[in-house]
Amino acid sequence: MKTNPNAPANPCDVQVDENGEVHQIYVAQRTYVASGLTIRQHFAAMAMQGMISHPGWQCDVNLTATDAVLAADALIKALNETSC
Predict the structure, then answer these.
(1) Model-wide pTM > 0.70
(2) CA-CA distances (angstroms) from residue 1 to 4, 37, 44, 63?
(3) pLDDT tens digits for range 12-54
(4) Which domain holds residue 76?
(5) Is residue 8 part of a domain?
């Protein structure tokens, strides 16, 4: 299965009435209706969290953010190249 970096990180189907109230939420295996973080954004956020949490971290946050996105892209590429 290929990893789509633009797919939602936590997909779910929801049923919303005309008042905006959610009546059903369940994790979907087939399709999704969701907003929020993409898989790429989620991976980048986790990478940045790990970098910043390192006791010796003293880098520029902009450089760290760029490195986190590069790490996310590398993970997506590796996931798409392997058959795990």
Answers:
(1) no
(2) 9, 20, 20, 32
(3) 666 667 777 766 555 555 555 556 688 899 999 999 999 999 8
(4) 13-81
(5) no
